[in-house]
């Protein structure tokens, strides 16, 4: 099944080419083609897909990788992550268990983020990058917070993602919870990084490559942002758009829990979407804006958002973990909203997240036939959004001219695989940590199941050494329970 594709571009002899052969190729494009054969790429683009013997004859100097009948996908995209959250693993907050999401924030995340310095921010990112590489995730749209290390924090993370070999869109979460000075520092960090990203993108384009960097404007949530702060963010981003254009839109959490709506109405006599449209989005193109979660929205809220051409990122694992409810995905799809899939820092594995997504909505709707194809389409939507966000070549598909982001999975399909049954092979056949090879921008990052762009053992040792320092700082930040007692 599927059609062979040959590039019209002539090869420059100095550029290294690679052929993956003996592969079952799943394109994840609009046609959902499944092909038996080979593909060739360099460090700029996928050059051809076709018969191995013919490609080997045309590209005689190419390096060869035998997929050994494994299934090959485009590199996966995570539409919402948190590099900074790694040190929460196994951590004792020395508080009573959270009773709701607002307490989860107060007892854990609003304390942990204040413990992070440059060393721990870099290490947290590095551990998450190891997880991403093992899962075949080659693009991550991240949302960062480190109130005591704001300036240059995004550039530090980008330096680590570049070393690891994957592409990232980064932003810093603006919030009022640490005072006006830090709020404005967060705004400045977003704008500075957007300018820096624009410069890096220009260099990549000159070299004929799709950029590995993008900057968005991050905010935490309207739960911790006043109307004045929203207006300030709007004004500041408009100034930068005049300088460099709209490279990346807003990236923020919206109604992750009911508290977001409750506090908004209590403090500002308006619902979250009303405040967003009135103060933050006013006069700015929202086509590159990402709203994470969007659980507690009315039908009218959803209709209003659908008119803005923005994207909503569903994070099922995280939402289940925090017991905050289920996003109204069917209503959003009915209104034509493009839904993407994220992990919210729970993991960096899109196959694992896809499985959770698939099961959650069947269970929630009490319908065994529900949401199978839609879950698969959300996985594909991540690539479409990444293409729009980073500009240039297509991301998240295997076709001639697309970026050479490829994952040879460990999965060999034991039953026929075709365009009509791909979702069920992903759901019932593939397993988390699926990458046999991970390739981003034509560079091999994982080879035969081993990460080669980073030193996993060294990163693990560094993280184990740094953890007592981070956890020790957490002990010095008064717990939520003690605050209530005082």
From TrEMBL:
Gene3D superfamilies: Metal-dependent hydrolases, Urease, subunit C, domain 1
Signal sequence range: none
Entry keyword set: Hydrolase
Domain spans labelled Amidohydrolase-related: 71-444
Protein name stated in the entry: Amidohydrolase family protein
Ranges in coiled-coil conformation: none
GO MF annotation list: hydrolase activity, acting on carbon-nitrogen (but not peptide) bonds
Lineage of source species: Eukaryota, Metamonada, Diplomonadida, Hexamitidae, Hexamitinae
UniProt xrefs under InterPro entries: Amidohydro-rel, Metal-dep_hydrolase_composite, Metal_Hydrolase, MTA/SAH_deaminase
NCBIfam families reported for this sequence: PRK07203.1 (NF005540)
Record's keyword annotation contains Hydrolase: yes
Entry annotated with the keyword Hydrolase: yes
């Amino acid at each position: 099944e599927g059609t062979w594709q040959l590039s019209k571009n002539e090869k420059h002899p100095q550029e290294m080419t690679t052929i993956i052969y003996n592969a079952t190729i799943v394109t994840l494009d609009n046609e959902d083609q499944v092909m038996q054969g080979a593909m060739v790429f360099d460090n700029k683009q996928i050059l051809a897909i076709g018969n191995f013997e013919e490609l080997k004859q045309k590209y005689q100097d190419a390096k060869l990788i035998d997929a050994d009948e494994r299934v090959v996908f485009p590199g996966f995209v995570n539409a919402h992550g948190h590099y900074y959250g790694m040190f929460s693993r196994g951590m004792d907050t020395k508080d009573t268990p959270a009773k709701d999401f607002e307490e989860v924030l107060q007892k854990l995340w609003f304390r942990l983020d204040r413990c992070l310095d440059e060393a721990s921010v870099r290490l947290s990112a590095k551990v998450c990058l190891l997880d991403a590489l093992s899962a075949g995730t080659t693009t991550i749209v991240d949302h960062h917070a480190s109130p005591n290390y704001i300036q240059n924090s995004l550039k530090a993370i980008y330096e680590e993602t570049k070393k690891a070999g994957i592409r990232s869109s980064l932003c810093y979460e603006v919030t009022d919870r640490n005072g006006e000075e830090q709020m404005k520092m967060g705004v400045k960090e977003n704008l500075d990084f957007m300018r820096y990203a624009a410069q890096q993108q220009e260099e990549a384009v000159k070299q004929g490559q799709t950029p590995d960097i993008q900057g968005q404007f991050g905010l935490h949530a309207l739960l911790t942002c006043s109307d004045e702060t929203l207006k300030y963010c709007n004004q500041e981003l408009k100034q930068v758009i005049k300088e460099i254009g709209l490279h990346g839109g807003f990236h923020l959490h919206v109604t992750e829990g009911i508290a977001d709506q409750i506090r908004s109405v209590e403090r500002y006599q308006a619902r979250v979407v009303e405040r967003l449209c009135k103060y933050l989005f006013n006069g700015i193109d929202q086509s590159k804006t990402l709203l994470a979660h969007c659980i507690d929205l009315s039908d009218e809220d959803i209709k209003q958002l659908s008119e803005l051409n923005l994207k909503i990122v569903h994070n099922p694992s995280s939402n289940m973990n925090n017991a905050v409810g289920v996003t109204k995905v069917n209503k959003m799809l009915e209104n034509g909203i493009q839904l993407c899939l994220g992990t919210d820092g729970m993991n960096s594995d899109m196959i694992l997240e896809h499985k959770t997504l698939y099961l959650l909505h069947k269970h929630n709707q009490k319908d065994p036939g529900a949401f199978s194809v839609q879950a698969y389409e959300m996985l594909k939507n991540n690539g479409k959004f990444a293409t729009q966000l980073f500009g240039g070549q297509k991301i998240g598909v295997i076709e001639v001219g697309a970026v050479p982001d490829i994952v040879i999975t460990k999965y060999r399909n034991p039953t026929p695989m075709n365009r009509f049954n791909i979702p069920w092979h992903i759901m019932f056949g593939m397993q988390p940590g699926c990458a046999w090879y991970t390739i981003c921008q034509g560079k091999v990052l994982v080879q035969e199941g081993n990460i080669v762009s980073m030193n996993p053992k060294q990163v693990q040792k560094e993280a184990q050494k740094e953890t007592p320092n981070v956890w020790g700082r957490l002990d010095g930040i008064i717990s939520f329970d003690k605050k209530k007692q005082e």
